[in-house]
Specification:
The structure holds two protein chains of two kinds. By secondary structure, chain A is of the alpha+beta class. Chain A contains 16 helices and twelve strands. Chain A has one domain (17-417): Orthogonal Bundle (Cytochrome p450), CATH 1.10.630.10. In chain A, a hairpin with a 2-residue loop joins strand 6 and strand 7 (319-321). Chain B has three helices and five strands; from the N terminus they run ββαβααββ. Chain B has helices at 23-29, 57-60, 65-70; strands spanning 2-6, 12-16, 49-52, 82-84, 97-100. The chains are: A alpha+beta, B alpha+beta. At the A-B interface, helix 4 of A face helix 3 of B.
């Protein structure tokens, strides 16, 4: 059996957050890949855009940052230049600015450094799973998936343990800012002018700004030289230092990205275990760990899309994309493209090669945290699978109301321990 | 030009590479294991790390500023001759180049 089957009629409004309430509208993406792989998409809230839906096209466009720029915004929403300047992180820059920031943080998230976190992650997984699996029936997103990424990020950043629940809550509000379960300020249902210069257009961004600023001051006063935050506050080789605004926006990015993406990968992996019973034995055999994390992350596709903006006129599939046009890479679609993945709606923990796009592969903005994400997913499922004799759904799953973050926000499960 | 990759087990893979292309793309095309190039040759992931063999390091040159920084973010330890192969461009002057793939 397959894990999940799309239910949309093939003509969903892919810009609408509500279109994702039953999971991504994959019948619509399949039709677009087949009939119009570079489709002009109307956007009721602003300027329309080009939708790139095939895996090979996304990969090829992503490798041409000179043509498809990140420096005009990376979300579907239009923003003024003032908003862009105030909110941007290094995600919203092109070379060489992007590399100027990236080289300050790359080592802290490099595979060699991240490998050193394995035991700490395993210890955290022990704590989280011992507590969650004390019950036979629970919401796996809340009890397992939501816990690990933020607690781990807190340790990497050197944040006080007591602050972590608050940060999880703010990270949720920041990135799931279109789901009323996570924020009282639902982005498309109110005018949030008051917050328009804040990261993610959210009051949670304002609070995180203040937290980050205070944290920066406290660490400086205490001479604290631990954690990645200290590393990025150091002057670069040319003597330049990160500005306060850059630092605050980067901190918000770490909280949002470190919080959501791995959480929803873990949730999607547990969902797969519930619906493809053979996966548990494969995990328990120990033979799939080189490939399983990437397949779980493909299956999850936590970032549904990222946007670029054409810096010059260019052609794709007979369409002329004009300079200034918005272009959206639909990773959710590319990761279900049967031209790139055999049986894409089936989770195959041994899939190799696995040319998925969940990390933005093929381009300069490839996920900084991908090594940490792979490691967290591997260790979590190693520890979970060895404790499980059986796991099954205990009720309907619920997806986030978001066209941007693909996530199962409620995943009721019933299980038997080994 | 012709390039040889020496794998950690001592075996080798040799390929003809078109002048002007980069040696990460050439390695991926030739199926060289452990040279991944996940960022598409944009200096952002450090997954195309190789060691340029002694005797070839002057010809391939020193890493640029950003490459130098990214070489501190590789999976295998940085060593003499460490380069990101997406930044080495095939040319006649490099014909016969030997690259060692990290273990």
């Amino acid at each position: 059996m397959t894990v999940w089957t799309p239910s949309d009629d093939g003509f969903a409004d892919i810009t609408s957050h509500d279109a994702y309430l039953a999971g991504p509208p994959h019948n619509t993406f399949a039709r677009m890949r087949r009939d119009d792989p570079c489709a002009w998409t109307d956007y009721p809230q602003g300027e329309g855009f080009w939708s790139i839906t095939r895996q090979a096209d996304i990969l090829a466009c992503n490798g041409k940052p000179d043509i498809f720029s990140s420096a005009r915004g990376i979300r579907m929403e239009d923003q003024t230049y003032a908003e862009y300047l105030a909110r941007r992180t290094f995600q919203e820059t092109d070379a060489p600015d992007h590399m100027m920031t990236r080289i300050k943080v790359a080592r802290a998230f490099s595979p060699g450094v991240v490998a050193g976190f394995e035991q700490a992650i395993r210890d955290l997984c022990d704590e989280i799973l011992d507590e969650a699996l004390a019950q036979d029936e629970f919401d796996a997103t809340k009890a397992i998936a939501r816990q690990l990424p933020m607690r781990m990020l807190g340790r990497i950043l050197g944040l006080p343990e007591a602050d972590l629940p608050w940060l999880v809550e703010k990270g949720d509000a920041l990135i799931a800012n279109t789901d009323p379960d996570f924020t009282a300020h639902v982005l498309d249902r109110m005018t949030t002018d008051e917050f328009r210069l804040m990261p993610f257009n959210s009051p949670a961004g304002a609070e995180l700004y203040i937290y980050a600023k205070d944290l920066m001051a406290q660490k400086a006063a205490a001479g604290d030289t631990g954690g990645v935050l200290h590393m990025i506050l150091q002057p670069a080789k040319d003597g330049s230092t990160i500005t306060e605004e850059e630092f605050r926006n980067f901190f918000c990015l770490l909280v949002a990205a470190g919080n959501d993406t791995t959480r929803y990968s873990i949730a999607a992996g547990i969902q797969a275990l519930c619906h493809q019973p053979e996966l548990l034995a494969q995990m328990q055999s120990g033979s799939v760990w080189d490939t399983a994390p990437d397949e779980i992350i493909r299956w999850a596709t936590p970032a549904t899309y990222f946007r670029r903006t054409a810096a010059q006129d260019t052609e794709l599939h007979g369409k002329t994309i004009r300079a200034g046009d918005k272009v959206i890479y639909w990773f959710a679609s590319g990761n279900r493209d049967d031209a790139a993945f055999a049986d894409p709606f089936r989770v195959d923990l041994s899939r190799k090669p696995n040319p998925h796009l969940s990390f933005g592969q093929g381009g300069p903005h490839i996920c900084l945290g991908m090594w940490l994400a792979r490691l967290e997913v591997r260790v979590l499922f190693q520890e979970l699978s060895r404790r499980l004799a059986h796991i099954e759904p205990a009720g309907p799953q619920k997806f986030l109301r978001s066209n941007f973050v693909g996530g199962i926000k409620e995943l009721p499960v019933r299980l038997k321990r080994t | 030009m012709r390039v040889t990759w020496e794998l950690p087990d001592g075996s080798t893979i040799t390929a003809d590479v078109t002048d002007g292309s980069n040696l990460m793309e050439a390695a991926v095309a030739a199926g060289v294991p452990r040279v991944l190039g996940e960022c598409g040759g944009n200096l952002a992931c450090a997954t195309c790390h190789v060691y340029v063999a002694e005797g070839w390091q002057a010809a391939t040159g020193a890493p640029g500023e950003f490459e130098d920084a990214m070489l501190d973010a590789t999976e295998a330890p940085r060593g003499p001759g460490s380069r990101l192969s997406c930044q080495i461009i095939a040319s006649a002057a490099l014909d016969g180049l030997l690259l060692r793939v990290p273990g």
